[in-house]
Amino acid sequence: MLYLDKSTSVHLWSSEKIEVPYLSPKDDKWHTYYPDFWCRYTNDKGHIVEAVLEVKPSSQRRWKINKAKWKAAREMCKERGWEFIVLTEKEIKP
Q1: Domain count of the chain?
Q2: What would the DSSP string read from start to end of 48-61?
Q3: Which of 9, 77, 78, 94 holds its CA 20 to 30 A away from the CA of 48?
Q4: What is the pLDDT along the chain (94 residues), one digit of tens a residue?
Q5: How many CB atoms lie within 10 A of CB 69?
Q6: What is the C-alpha separation between 82 and 37, in angstroms, rounded?
Q7: Which has the closest alpha carbon to 66: 5, 11, 25?
């Protein structure tokens, strides 16, 4: 959150405001996933981009439940013209 607040390229952001319905592989029922962040920012090419961001330890990238959530989020983002980005400790550096 501090990064989003301090970044001059980020125009707007919110935390856990986006709702993504997904089918859980654990119980084969529909649930709602709340990604960590949504933001609007200016990318390296000067284009304004909207993105949904999820922050997770890299060890959780292969979990079936996360794959189901992220598949649904990617589809929703694609429909809206947004990006979906999963960030781990490998991408986030102090």
Answers
A1: 1
A2: EEEEEEEE--GGGT
A3: 94
A4: 788 898 899 999 999 999 999 999 999 999 999 999 999 999 999 999 999 999 999 999 999 999 999 999 999 999 999 999 999 988 887 6
A5: 22
A6: 13
A7: 25
Give the Cα separation of 27 and 47 in Å (integer). 41
Residue 94 lies in a domain: no
Q: Is 92 inside any structural domain?
A: no
Q: Which residues pair with 39 in a beta bridge?
A: 13, 51
Pairwise CA distance, residues 43 & 27, whole Å: 39
67-77 residue pLDDT tens: 999 999 999 99
Could you tell me the pTM of the whole model? 0.89
Model pLDDT, residue 94: 63
- H helices of the chain, in order, are 2-6, 64-80
